[in-house]
Amino acid sequence: MSLMVLLSNIQPTEAPLGLIQRGKASFYSKKFNGRRTAYGERFKMTELTAAHRTLPYNTMVEVTNLDNNKSVVVRINDRGPYSKGRVIDLCYSAAKMLGMLSRGVANVTIRVIGAERFVRTEPVASDILQNSTSQLMTMPVPVMHNN
Question: Regarding the domain delimited by 14-118, which CATH topology (the fold level of the hierarchy) does it fall under?
Fold first, then answer.
């Protein structure tokens, strides 16, 4: 029984491709720019990233605004949102591409499209301590769809 409880708390390392979730999206305030995400990198409002409560870090998701059918691909690098009824918190740039800045919240679908490998854009403190010759990885270019 205790093994079952222990295993139930393990998060998968990859989300199932094609997993779809519907709900409300919000976006980060500009005041969060430069703060550390739960993943350990600095939040940059111009990079296409997002927060999700359960999807593994570096999961790539396509977010579609159901009001105007605009879509954007973002990478999960933080935890949240912490507002009830919200399923994802987007960076400012993604919210702008989805046309949701004026309302602040949008009805969206989220579809898992894959996992990105080696996308950390800067070393985290624990990485520096373990490996003094830490290499910086470059961010992949996200794809935006306008339907």
Answer: Barwin-like endoglucanases (2.40.40)
